[in-house]
Every structure is written in C-alpha cells, then in structure tokens.
C-alpha cells in the first residue's frame, strides 16, 4: 500500500508537482500518461527520493515520512520499499547481470553473497537471461539490459515498482520482449506505478490510468473509461494526439 | 673531448643497482599512502563535506602551488624546529611524507575528475536500491572511477619514482645520493650521472610497458 498526500516539487520557480494526492492499493497496477514535461518522471523520482520533494507525506507499507524533511535513513527506508526501473536501464556498469540483481540484496538487505547470487540466478532464469549471468551490461542488447533492470527491481521485493518509460530508449526491435516481461510482472499482481507512452500496453495491464498535466492529476479511472470516454478536455486533446 | 671510462661505468652499475630497492620502496610507500589520502580528499570534494571540503581545497592548493623541494626542506629542516617531536624523523621518512602529501594533492584532482566522470545514472541506480553513500562509493562509483583514473595514476607513480631523487638533498643515500657520492670520489661526474640517468630511464620504461598492458586490460574489463 502506498499513499501520497500533497506531494510538491519545485525546480526554482517552476512548480513541477503541484500537491499530488495518490493512494495505490497493494496489487494495484497504475499507469501514468500525459504530455511531455508535466512531472510524470518527477513524481516517480520523488517517491524514490531521487528528487527531494518540497512538501508532502509519503507512506509506503509500514513507513511514513514527511518528504521535505526526511532524514537520510528515512529516505533509504522509502527507497528500500520502492524499486525503480529507469528509462536508460542504469545498470551497474562494473557488475555482471547476476551481480546487478544480487547487489541490492547484499548491500541493502544484508544477504550473504552466495544467497543473493542464487536468488539472482533464479530471477535471471525467470526473465530468460540465465545464460547471460556472467555478462556485463556493455555486452547486452538494450532489451536485455532493460530486462536485467526489471530483474533488479524484482529482486528488491518492494511494496511498489516505479517504472519510468521502460521502452522509450529502446530500439524498436527490443520493445516487445520488455513489454512482455512487464506484462508477466503485472500479471503476478506486483503493485506498480508505470509511466508509459505505450497506450495499448497501459490499457492491457493497468487497473487504473492517471492523466497528468501541469503537475497535477487531472483525471483518473479505469482504462476502459479514460481511453473511451475521457471527461476533461485536456485528456481528450492528449488522447486525440497519441491514439 | 675525453673518452668515456667504460670500465668505471660498468663497475658502477652493481654499486648503483643496490640502491634501486630503496628508491622503489620509497616510491611505492609514497604511492600507496598518496592514493589513500587522495581518494579521501577526492570524496570529500565530490560530496562537498562541509568544513573538510574547504580544508581540502587549501591543502591541495598549497601542495600544488609550491615546489616539491621547498616542501621537503620545510618538512625535514623546518618543521622540527617548531615541533620538537619531529626531530627524530629521518630523511627517508621525511621524503616519503613529503612525496605523499605533494602527490596526493595532484592525484586527488585526477580522482575527483574520474569520480565526476562516472555516469550520473550509476549514482541514481545505487541510491534507488537503498544503498548508503559509503556503499555506493565503495562498490559502484570508485571501482568505475579507478578505471578512468588508472592511466593518469600510473603517470604519477612514474613522477614519484623520479622525484625520490630529491631525497638526497635530505641526506638520504638513495640512487641519486649514491651516484653523487661515487662521482665525488672519482671526479667522473658524467659517467656517474649518465649511469644513474639510464637506471631511472629503464625503470620508467618498464613501468610504461606495464601501463600499456593495464590500459589494454582496463579497456576490455566489463565489456564481456
Ligand atoms: N533537475 C531538474 N532541474 C530543473 N528542472 C527540471 C529538472 N528535472 C525536471 N525538470 C523540469 O520539470 C518538468 C517536469 O519534468 P519531468 O521529467 O517530470 O516531465 P515528464 O512528464 O516526465 O516528461 P517526459 O514525458 O518528457 O518524460 C519539466 O519542465 C522539466 O524541465
Ligand atoms: Mg519523463
């Protein structure tokens, strides 16, 4: 369960998140859509403290923090409960595929190296990359790297997986394998908040779609509703452009 | 022009080679200490640790802004007059200390540049999984920065080896000091100093070969 109240983030004069309220139930899969520059990435990054919000209360599972004053250890507590999948994969360049997945288990959750690597190999098998365990990111295709990125997030066993445009940095040939893997993660009822430009995909996997504009959630609802009978003119205008 | 005294030169070789271990030991100890100190200073600079950051800046500025020879004299001849407990320090220790601080200042800047050169995504990925800053530095950022900085750091090791010759001005009989003594006895200055030059040259050439190997290896690392 995750709950956000009044989440606000400014870059100088620019208010990028304008008091976001958001509750996500365990097992719920929420897709975020909206025009470029409306704060979708900033929302995800704020929930992972990659940005320090200016105001707001964040609850993730058993942890509640005041986002603007959260201490380093409170931020880590939130990060531990929110895994992140990056647009540009951001795999650890000096670690093999296996160790990319094992790293957080060792450093953050205190597992032994052997335990963590065994778990990492299970996950690699799940994501169809068992034979790439020893490969470094530089030797993997974009699609493979992003699958490892998703594997790393799976290993975190987090309350919620935050996924920011997982396919938009990929060559078209790799998009399908990544979406298929994400579909499986969603089907397993992993709680997720995913920003995507793949509208069909959002429609397939999401329980709820949020439309963001100007740092606010303008409209939200079940995908059947949002995609077929959006109420807000801004949502309509956006969907007309992208569908 | 007088002919070279080749027999003297050949006879000098084993005498001088005996001092190579001391030169390499001084350089190696200074290198290891300088690396440790430089890494700490680089981290302090990159993370802008309040107070320490300013202190480090001044330290780096001083040790880069003054000649090594002046620093060595200050350590060996000057400081013991102010702090009497330093009187017991011998020339070798003073030279190693001086080389350490001097080169740490240079290496700190290279390491800092290398740390900054590690892609931002590596920091974000480390933090996003919940690592502490120390874990991120030790396991993700520094190993990648080391690859970037390694060739430059080998260059500094070469510099340190050559700079150990200044220890002879502190009364240390190392490679250069030995050559100086031999020359003073035989008056064959050219023979003595060309021999010592050749020895330094060979050492540095060997190291340069190692460096090239290292670069090839580092180029291949993490690409598999
Ligand atoms: N580090 C930063 N410093 C200053 N401004 C920033 C920073 N990061 C984002 N912004 C600004 O915040 C706004 C929202 O950016 P954000 O990346 O969250 O948008 P987005 O909805 O994810 O857009 P896109 O669909 O293009 O990814 C933009 O105006 C952007 O320029
Ligand atoms: Mg974005």
TrEMBL record, chain A:
This is Amino-acid ABC transporter ATP-binding protein YecC. Residues 2-239 form the ABC transporter domain. Belongs to the ABC transporter superfamily. GO terms for molecular function: ABC-type amino acid transporter activity; ATP binding; ATP hydrolysis activity. PROSITE patterns: ABC_TRANSPORTER_1, ABC_TRANSPORTER_2. Keywords: ATP-binding, Nucleotide-binding, Transport.
UniProtKB/TrEMBL annotation, chain B:
It is found in: Cell inner membrane; Cell membrane. GO terms for molecular function: L-cystine transmembrane transporter activity. Keywords: Amino-acid transport, Cell membrane, Membrane, Transmembrane, Transmembrane helix, Transport. The chain crosses the membrane at residues 20-47, 59-79, 85-106, 145-168, 188-210. The keyword Transmembrane helix applies. It is a multi-pass membrane protein. GO terms for cellular component: ATP-binding cassette (ABC) transporter complex. InterPro entries: AA_ABC_transptr_permease_3TM, ArtM/GltK/GlnP/TcyL/YhdX-like, MetI-like, MetI-like_sf. It holds the Pfam family BPD_transp_1. Residues 20-211 form the ABC transmembrane type-1 domain. NCBIfam families: HEQRo_perm_3TM (TIGR01726). This is Putative amino-acid ABC transporter permease protein patM. It comes from Nitratireductor indicus C115.
């Amino acid at each position: 369960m995750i709950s956000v109240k009044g989440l606000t983030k400014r870059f100088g004069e620019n208010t990028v998140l304008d008091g976001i309220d958001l509750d996500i139930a365990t097992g719920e899969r929420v897709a975020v859509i909206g025009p470029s520059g409306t704060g979708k990435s900033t929302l995800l990054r704020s929930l992972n403290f990659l940005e320090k919000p200016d105001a707001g209360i964040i609850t993730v599972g058993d942890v509640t923090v005041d986002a603007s004053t959260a201490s380093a250890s409170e931020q880590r507590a939130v990060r531990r409960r929110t895994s992140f999948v990056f647009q540009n994969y951001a795999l650890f360049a000096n670690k093999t595929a296996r160790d990319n997945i094992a790293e957080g288990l060792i450093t953050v959750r205190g597992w032994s190296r052997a335990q963590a690597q065994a778990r990492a190999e299970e996950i690699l098998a799940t994501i169809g990359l068992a034979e790439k365990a020893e490969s470094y990111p530089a030797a993997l295709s974009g699609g493979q790297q992003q699958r490892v990125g998703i594997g790393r997030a799976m290993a975190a066993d987090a309350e919620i997986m935050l996924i920011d445009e997982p396919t938009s940095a990929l060559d078209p040939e790799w998009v399908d394998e990544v979406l298929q893997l994400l579909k499986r993660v969603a089907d397993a009822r992993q709680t997720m908040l995913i920003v995507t430009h793949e509208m069909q995909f959002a429609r397939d996997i999401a329980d709820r779609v949020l439309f963001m504009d100007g740092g606010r959630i303008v409209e939200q609802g079940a995908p059947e509703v949002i995609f077929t009978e959006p109420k807000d003119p801004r949502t309509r205008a956006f969907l007309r452009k992208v569908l | 022009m007088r002919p070279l005294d080749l027999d003297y030169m050949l006879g000098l070789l084993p005498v001088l080679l005996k001092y190579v271990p001391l030169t390499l030991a001084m350089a190696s100890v200074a290198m290891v200490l300088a690396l440790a100190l430089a890494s700490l200073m680089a981290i302090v600079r990159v993370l802008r640790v309040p107070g320490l950051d300013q202190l480090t800046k001044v330290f780096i500025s001083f040790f880069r802004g003054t000649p090594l020879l002046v620093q060595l004299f200050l350590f060996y001849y000057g400081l013991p007059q102010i702090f009497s407990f330093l009187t017991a320090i011998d020339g070798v220790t003073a030279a190693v200390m001086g080389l350490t601080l001097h080169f740490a200042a240079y290496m700190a800047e290279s390491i800092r540049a290398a740390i900054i050169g590690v892609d931002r995504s590596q920091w974000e990925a480390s933090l996003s999984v919940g690592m502490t800053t120390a874990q991120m530095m030790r396991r993700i950022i520094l190993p990648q920065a080391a690859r970037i900085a390694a060739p430059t750091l080998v260059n500094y090791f070469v510099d340190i080896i050559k700079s150990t010759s200044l220890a002879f001005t502190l009364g240390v009989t190392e490679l250069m000091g030995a050559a100086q003594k031999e020359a003073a006895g035989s008056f064959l200055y050219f023979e003595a100093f060309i021999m010592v030059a050749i020895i330094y040259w060979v050492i540095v050439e060997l190291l340069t070969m190692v460096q090239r190997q290292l670069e090839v290896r580092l180029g291949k690392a993490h690409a598999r």
